[in-house]
Automatic annotation (TrEMBL):
GO terms for molecular function: hydrolase activity, acting on carbon-nitrogen (but not peptide) bonds, in linear amides; hydrolase activity, acting on ester bonds; metal ion binding. This is Succinylglutamate desuccinylase/aspartoacylase family protein. InterPro entries: AstE_AspA_cat, N-alpha-Ac-DABA-like, N-alpha-Ac-DABA_deacetylase. Keywords: Hydrolase, Metal-binding, Zinc. It comes from Histidinibacterium aquaticum.
Length: 347
């Protein structure tokens, strides 16, 4: 360990080969309860990259919290090179209230870079950015769909970055979606400051999904191995190259009523395929929703009661949709069949 410097965060120093949970003060609630940003620091005995994994930037997206929990308990981290920061709950306010937002109704993922003297959202964004994000070379931010929607596991990356595209393929989620960043988002601010970002989307708000969790944990471990932070033993390789998408479209309800869907997550569809039907409660009127192009279902609504304009299906245009079904089945089957690790199952 000679020559390896300690890692400093807040007012805490973490020695090489040590792991500690550090509570960074955020605020105090009106009843005098303190709120903190809790970060697990795993500071390897040997030098290497610095990576953060974050979840619950939106407080109702709990799948990422479970992914972070399983990651933290992985025995593979005993051999870690470099430094890993795990932040299972960024937005504690939203998490405790099962809400996407902060108490001031602001979206934390539209509040970056924030400021130390701004709104509650701005202060939390600033703290997370300065204490965690800017100390790292790479970040993996974990998300799910909003409540009453679900997402097929997918990685989203910024266009025009070959290194990020490689990391996305290494992660091994079924789909890699190239999408531009949004102003005020964590991904936009991090990349503006030179920190690479992978955005993982999977599952439904306020729900656990075993496939989404397993895919997330396995993907993070693969990326850490690719970065030279973990040995190969115990880390599975993707069985298929993820499907690549650069264009998506939401199919929306043409009217309010009762929704019946005929396609599920990960299904490949052809242009004109009947996707869903919306009927009035008496069955007197019914309107159909059809696929506008050949594509793959990467997200959908799960609530059967809809209003006009509600998002029903998220359809991605992929190369060779005729092969998408078989490729996706192999990728999904791999995560369902195989344990997360060769020696230790973490559930």
């Amino acid at each position: 360990m000679a020559g390896r410097a300690p890692f400093e965060i807040g007012e805490t120093t973490v020695a090489p080969g040590e792991r500690r949970v550090v509570d960074l003060p955020v605020s105090v609630l009106s009843d005098h309860t303190p709120v903190t940003l809790s970060v697990e620091v795993i500071h390897g005995a040997r030098p290497g990259p610095k990576v953060f994994v974050s979840a619950a930037v939106h407080g109702d997206e709990v799948i990422g919290v479970e992914i972070a929990r399983r990651l933290s308990r992985s025995p593979l981290l005993r051999s870690l090179r470099g430094t890993l920061l795990v932040v299972p709950i960024v937005n504690s306010f939203g998490f405790l209230n099962r809400s996407r937002y902060l108490p001031d109704r602001r979206d934390l993922n539209r509040s970056f870079p924030g400021s130390a003297g701004g709104s509650l959202a701005a202060r939390l964004a600033n703290l997370f950015l300065t204490e965690v994000v800017l100390r790292c070379d790479l970040g993996i931010d974990l998300h799910s769909a909003a409540i009453h929607r679900t997402n097929l596991p997918q990685i989203r990356v910024t266009p025009g970055d070959p290194q990020l595209a490689t990391l996305a393929r290494v992660f091994g989620a079924p789909v890699v979606l190239t999408s531009p960043v949004r102003a005020g988002s964590l991904r936009a601010e991090a990349q503006e400051r030179g920190v690479e970002m992978l955005l993982y989307e999977a599952g439904e708000g306020l729900r656990f999904d075993e496939l989404a969790v397993r895919t997330g944990v396995a993907g993070i471990l693969r990326v850490l191995h690719h970065k030279g932070m973990l040995p190969a033993k115990g880390i599975s390789r993707p069985r298929q190259v993820p499907l690549a998408a650069t264009e998506t479209q939401w199919l929306r309800a043409p009217r309010g009523g009762l929704l019946r869907t005929f396609k599920g997550d990960g299904e490949a569809v052809e242009k004109g395929t009947l996707m869903a039907a919306v009927s009035d409660p008496f069955g007197e009127r019914e309107e159909e929703i059809t696929a506008p192009f050949d594509g793959l279902v990467i997200g959908r609504a799960v609530l059967p009661v809809v209003n006009e304009g509600d998002a029903i299906f998220h359809l991605a245009r992929v190369s060779r949709p005729d092969r998408a079904g078989a490729a996706l089945e192999e990728i999904v089957g791999h995560h369902v069949r195989d344990p997360l690790f060769d020696e230790d199952e973490i559930i």
